[in-house]
Amino acid sequence: MLDAQNINQFYGSSHTLRGVSLSIRQGECMALLGRNGVGKTTLLKCLMGVQSISSGSISFAGHDIDALPPHARAKLGMAYVPQGREIFARLTVEENILMGMATKPSRQARDIKDEVFDLFPVLHTMLNRRGGDLSGGQQQQLAIARALVADPKLIIFDEPTEGIQPSIIKDIGRVINLLRNRGDIAILLCEQYFDFARELADRFVVLSRGEVVASGDRSEMDSEMVRKHLSV
């Protein structure tokens, strides 16, 4: 579904991503792990086209997307739940969710599927409330709902548990697990909360100083080498 090879990226003279490669198959969840400041969010933004790469290649569902802007990648089926949620504070919950359908043809019905409210019942009771009035956990659920209504083939989560209360973390984990078990969506989960990622991931990649320093399947995530690169 997604294949990134030998990605290099610079901020000025700072070499932030150094030959990073990863590949995600349909129906699997890959965890992207690493301490703060090692390049995780930069990599996700490069995959979405928010930041440009200096060299390397990115393909999605058989398409070469290196030169495509973010909206074109979204139209192909890539969805992004950014760190910090970035919901539209002055728009209502309903309007925020509808923004996720912007890539769909205008002639196509833009009704919010019941599935979204099955996953996040609290949003159904808050449709007319402004996004900025929601709690952090509710905003995170809203950001995920906004991504899901686009019917993505790939969904990228950037630190979905950051600053979220434990009860909402469980809800988010349940939703990600349901999506993975559906088998039709590829999931890239960037996470610092190791136990959360380990429960959900089929495979993992660890970044350190902009480089891939470890990768493997779930059975290898508990290794001393992986934990060494995650400990502060």
General description of the model:
33% of the residues lie in helices and 26% in strands. By secondary structure, the protein is of the alpha/beta class. It has one domain: Rossmann fold, CATH 3.40.50. The strands form two sheets. It has a six-stranded mixed sheet with strand order 6-7-8-3-9-10, sandwiched between helices. Strands 2-1-4-5 form a four-stranded antiparallel sheet, covered by helices on one side. α3 runs parallel beside α6. The protein starts with a strand and ends with a helix. The model has no long low-confidence stretch (mean pLDDT 91).
Essential attributes:
alpha/beta, Rossmann fold, 232 residues, four-stranded antiparallel beta sheet, six-stranded mixed beta sheet
Strand content: 25-35%
Percentage of helical residues? 25-40%
> Kindly, what is the distance between the CA atoms of the first and last residues, rounded to a whole number of angstroms?
33 Å
Number of strands: 10
Mean pLDDT, to the nearest integer, reads 91
Write the CATH homologous superfamily: P-loop containing nucleotide triphosphate hydrolases
Order of strands across the biggest sheet?
A: 6-7-8-3-9-10
Q: Can you tell me the overall shape?
A: globular
Rg from C-alpha positions?
17 Å
At the first level of CATH, the class is Alpha Beta
Number of domain units: 1
Secondary-structure element string: EEEHEEHEHHHHEHEHEEH
> What is the CATH topology classification name?
Rossmann fold
Largest sheet: 6 strands, mixed
Number of helical regions: 9
Structural class: alpha/beta
Identify low-pLDDT runs: none
CATH architecture: 3-Layer(aba) Sandwich
